[in-house]
Amino acid sequence: MFRKTRGYNISKDTDCERKEPMKYGESTFDILYLLFAIVSGCVMLKKGRNHTERMMGLATLILGCGDAFHLVPRVLNYFLNADITSALGIGKLITSVTMTVFYVLMLYIWIGYYENKKNRALEITIWSFAAIRFLLCLFPQNGWLQNSSDMTWGIIRNIPFVILGAVICALYFRDRRKTHRFRFVWLYILLSFAFYIPVAVGAGEVPILGMLMLPKTICYIFLIAVFLGAVLKDDEKKTETDLTV
Length: 245
Prior knowledge:
The protein is an all-alpha fold. The chain is 80% helix and 0% strand. The N and C termini lie far apart (86 Å).
């Protein structure tokens, strides 16, 4: 009996020790990402010379602030001995909404940056899938307050979101050769969904899938860096051209 108890304690202590690096590593990464996203969004809103560049800032700020509602409770959950189940669930709800808004804004960034004409049918399609996504997120079966990870509703509410993302990805893929700076945006979108879908659908059954959120977030960091470069570096080039003239 004594040996079993002792063995159990050693195993438990070992598990805690293994979680320590992950706790601090993930928390540090999440905080740095949120700071980068929110600060970058504010900078782009201030420095943007036109509607499209300011929309890049707005999209980035919405993405960062929305993710904060999900990531901050995750960080606190590591360090607080309190039940924050509801905060985690509501944070996931808010993030689901803001991610959808982010991809809707990606449509208008595509229109403005590539100087494409507005397509009424395309806009209606994007807004329709976004609206369906919003409505599905409101259903009580999602169990946000209980921080539920129901696989069925994880699939249902993400179907319109994945279709929306696929359309946006296809648009950026089509025009990838028009500008050097935005040539990989389609890839960042594609990879972010590839990492997100297994988490949204199966993390409740297979918790280890949650680790895919790390590469998904890295894709967003690359995407934000593209926006930031378009606003700041292109601005520097324009200033040099103006001085030369």
